Amino acid sequence: MFSLLLALLIGEKMVHVFEYHGKHYLYDTGSGSLHECDEKTARYMKGDVTSLTDAEIKEILSDVEGLKKEGLLYAEEVKTYPFKSTEVKALCLHICHDCNLRCKYCFADEGAYHAAREMMSLETAKAAIDFLLKNSGSRKVLEVDFFGGEPLMNFEVVKQTVYYAKEEAAKLGKRFLFTTTTNGLLLTDEIIEFFNEEMENVVLSLDGRKEIHDEVRKTVNGKGSFDAVIEKIKKFVRARGDKHYYVRGTFTAKNLDFSKDVLFLADNGFDSLSVEPVVTEIPDLQIKEEHLPIIEREYELLCDEYLRREEKGEGFNFFHFNVDLEGGPCLQKRVSACGAGNEYFSVVPNGDIYPCHQFAGDDKWKMGNVKEGVLDQDIRLQFATSCLFTRKKCDGCFAKFICSGGCNANNYHYNGDINDPYEMTCAMMKKRIECAMHILAERKCRQSGEN
Amino acid sequence: MIKTIAKPAEKKITGCGECRSTCQSACKTSCTVGNQSCERVTREQKIERK
After folding, report:
1. Contacts of A386 by beta carbon, 8 Å cutoff, 6+ apart
2. Which ipTM was obtained for this model?
3. How confident is the model at residue A383 (pLDDT cuts 50, 70, 90)?
4. Cβ contact, residue pair A337, B2, below 8 Å
C-alpha cells in the first residue's frame, strides 16, 4: 500500500538516485540537496520494493516525509527566466589571430580563425574597452579576457590595453578583472611579473605527459612543444603565489587514459587543473560514443586518487570536481548559463563582435563592430532568451541546474542549434557531477570522523 | 537511513550579476555555472572570517 502511493509520488518528482563504490546517494534537483542513504532506501527510491518488509518501507517513508517537510527532497523546481539584461559585462579580446603553435585539434584554425593571420591594434583594443565601459550600465566589475591565437605574440597591446582600461574604469568608479589564456611559449620574467601584477586569472595550456602533449601540440616546424613550455609554465606557477591560475589541458581519443595526464600535471607541482574533452571532428582525435565507458571509468579513477591525495594533505584542485551545493550560483545564473551573446562577447582583431570565441569568424553570428558600437539585437535576443527551459532535452535531467544546458557553441556546432545540447557532453558532465558529489560526501565523512 | 550531505544555504534568485563570466573561469569549452561559486556569498564569508 505504502509503496504504491510512494511510487506514484516518485513518478512526478526529480530525485536522482546513484551509486558510487557501494555508496548510495540521492540528489534532489529542486532543492539542490544531496543525501546519502542505505542500499534498501536507494532501491526503494528507484521503485524496486522487492524483498522490502512493511517495517522497512515505513521507516524509509518516515525519512522521506521528514526531508520533504524540510524542503530537501521532492522539492518543487522554481522556474525563473533570465533577466533581459541590456548591460555588457565581459569581453573576450582576440588580441592576436595568429599562433606560434600548430595544435592539431585547434578549434580556431591554428589561431587564424579561417581568415588572414592578424594582430589587434591598440586602437581597436581601446575601442573595445570603450564599448564595454559605455554598455556596462550599473555594473562595477567588468572582465576582459586576452585570448588568441596566442595573445603573447601581441604582448605590448595586452599591456597597453590593461593600463588604458584601468585608467578609464577609474574615471567611472569601475574596475576590471583581467584574464589571459596562453600556451606559455613566450613567457618571460617581464611577462610573469606583469601577469602577477595585473591578471586576476591566467590559463596555461598544457596537455599532460610529454608524449601526449607532443602528439598534438606542435610548433610551427612540426616538433612537439612540451620541452619548450614546461619549465616556463613551472616558473610562472612558482611565481604566481596564491593568485588564480589554471593549467588547462585537452584530452582526445588518443589519450582516453587522461587521468594519468591530470595526475602527471599534479605531480609536476601544478595544483589548479582543468583537463577538457576535445571539441573536434578530426576522426582520430574526436571523442565518440564508444569511448564513453572508458571516459567515465577514467573520471572515477581520477576521483578516487583525488580523494586519496586530499586525505594525505597532497590535494589539488580539478575544476570539474568543484560543485558548490551550499554556496553555489543563484538560480538566475543557473538558468541563464554562460551569458555569451547577451552580456559576454568576443571581439576579433578588426573589432567585429561575436557571441563568444567559438563563434568568431562565422559571418552568420557577427553582431557588430566595437568601432560602430552597435549590437545586432536579433542575435542578442536569441542568446538572451536561450536558457535552461528552452532546452527541451534538459527536462527530466538531474544535472540541469548545475550544467545549465551546456555550452551554446558546442550545442550549435554539433547539433546545429544553441538550444540542442550535445549528448556526449551531457554524459560526461553527469559523470563528473556524480564524482564531485561523492567527493563532497567523502569530505563530510572525513570531517565528522566517520569511515 | 537517509543522511543529508549538503543543502543550499538559501534559495537565491538574486541575479545580481557580480559573478565572473563563466567562460573565463578555467577552460573555455565546458565551463559550467555549477563549477562556480557565488561571488557575493564568497566575499561575505571572507569578511565574516576576518
Report:
1. A337, A408, A418, A419
2. 0.87
3. very high
4. no
